[in-house]
């Protein structure tokens, strides 16, 4: 009699995946009893979607609704759709999401797309589709960027993403390596992830409190290819780790997170800066970015790869050439120490100090929840259809805090807290 075939070993540890789902709901969202949840995910992340859905209902969720994306369907559009398709987006869907958020729903996104998915497609079509999507997404994005709701992003080791990160390994081994890296960065490879996150959040709060006490007028970044002064918005406030949304729920928007961040002044950024890691933006990798700012606005931009897409991004609207965020991350962060280039902003931004083009976060102002859009603009907050983080920190970058009187305080030296 033939022996039964042994099933292939699951490269994604199911116990740790269950912990990630629990952390997403209990730490990332702090989902409340009776609260609805709107989730987006690639189809490949279905195992995590199911576990998060289970955890959400165990936490008392009212209704969990998930929208899926499929790489093959995305590529089919570029192969077969008429040209006018690329100037359209599903505005009805985003309007529905905005309505759900206005009604009290939480939002969770599972990241894991192939960072190179659209690298061989027409960059003009990619840029047009991205802009149409940004315009359509604005009603929902405003609820998120204004921190009206509790929201969270976690990741799943999509095989196509894993193969980009660990290109020399067979598929199952690449997935296993990426899964383990995600679990470590997300602090779910320990006995008590909830307690680990409580300790980590306390450390980030201490960093934020020091920066808020200093009340710097600007930050000055210097390093290879970088001499950049980032003025900070009037009445800015530093945040890091867990934050309380306008709905009163304290959540961790990003899992993982190693950053403390605030809002720059949209008109007070001067100098030049070079990226220190590639930026993966909606299926296109943009590498070796170099830009120059005058009066807060990017006036020159180039990249060794993806330059055409970068320039289209910068032309999205007036605010796309200005900064909406500046974030500090030590070079020795666990994600940086892993030595892995994830080609995923959620991870790579937590390995390096970074800046973000576009929309600012209103919560990064003193009493931000009570400020109008006009007041935020008057204090230097930027407005845009986009919010795109890219990495400018390394072990060779120094940062000084500049006070209003021009005196300086070391903030980071060689990428580490001074």
TrEMBL record:
InterPro entries found in the cross-reference section: M29_Exopeptidase, M29_N-terminal, Peptidase_M29
Source superkingdom: Bacteria
Keyword Protease assigned: yes
GO molecular function: aminopeptidase activity; metal ion binding; metallopeptidase activity
Short name of any one Pfam family annotated for the protein: Peptidase_M29
Keyword Nucleus: no
UniProt keywords, alphabetically: Aminopeptidase, Hydrolase, Metal-binding, Metalloprotease, Protease
Cofactor field: Mg(2+); Zn(2+); Co(2+)
GO biological process: proteolysis
The family this protein is said to belong to: Belongs to the peptidase M29 family.
Record PANTHER family: AMINOPEPTIDASE (PTHR34448), AMINOPEPTIDASE AMPS (PTHR34448:SF3)
Protein name: Aminopeptidase
Organism: Rhizobium fredii (Sinorhizobium fredii)
């Amino acid at each position: 009699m033939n022996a039964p075939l042994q099933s292939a070993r699951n490269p994604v540890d199911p116990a740790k995946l269950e912990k990630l789902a629990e952390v997403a709901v209990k730490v990332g969202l702090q989902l409340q009893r009776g609260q609805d949840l709107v989730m987006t995910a690639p189809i490949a992340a279905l195992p995590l979607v199911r576990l998060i859905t289970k955890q959400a209902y165990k936490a008392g969720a009212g209704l969990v609704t998930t929208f899926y994306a499929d790489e093959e369907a995305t590529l089919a559009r570029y192969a077969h759709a008429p040209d006018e398709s690329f100037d359209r987006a599903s505005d009805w869907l985003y309007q529905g999401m905005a309505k759900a958020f206005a009604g009290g729903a939480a939002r969770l996104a599972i990241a894991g797309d192939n960072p190179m998915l659209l690298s061989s497609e027409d960059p003009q079509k990619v840029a047009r589709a991205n802009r149409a999507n940004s315009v359509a997404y604005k009603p929902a994005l405003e609820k998120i960027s204004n921190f009206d709701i509790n929201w969270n992003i976690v990741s799943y080791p999509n095989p196509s993403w894993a193969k980009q990160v660990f290109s020399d390994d067979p598929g199952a081994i690449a997935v296993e390596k990426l899964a383990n890296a995600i679990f470590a960065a997300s602090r779910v490879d320990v006995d008590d992830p909830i307690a680990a996150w409580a300790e980590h959040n306390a450390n980030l709060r201490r960093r934020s409190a020091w920066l808020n006490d200093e009340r710097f007028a600007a930050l000055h970044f210097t390093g290879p290819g970088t001499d950049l002064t980032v003025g900070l918005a009037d009445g800015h406030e530093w945040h890091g780790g867990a934050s309380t949304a306008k709905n009163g729920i304290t959540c961790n928007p990003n899992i993982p997170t190693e950053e403390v961040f605030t809002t720059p002044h949209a008109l007070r950024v001067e100098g030049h800066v070079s990226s220190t890691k590639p930026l993966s933006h909606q299926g296109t990798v943009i590498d070796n970015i170099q830009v120059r700012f005058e009066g807060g606005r990017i006036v020159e931009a180039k990249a060794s790869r993806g330059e055409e897409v970068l320039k289209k991004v910068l032309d999205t609207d007036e605010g796309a050439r200005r900064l909406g965020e500046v974030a500090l991350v030590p070079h020795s962060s666990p994600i940086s120490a892993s030595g892995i280039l994830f080609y995923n902003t959620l991870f790579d931004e937590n390995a390096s100090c970074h800046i973000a083009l576009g929309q600012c976060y209103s919560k990064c102002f003193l009493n931000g929840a009570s400020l109008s859009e006009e007041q935020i603009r008057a204090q230097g907050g930027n407005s845009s259809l986009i919010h795109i983080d890219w990495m400018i920190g390394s072990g060779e970058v120094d940062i000084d805090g500049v006070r209003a009187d021009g005196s300086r305080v070391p903030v980071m030296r060689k990428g580490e807290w001074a």
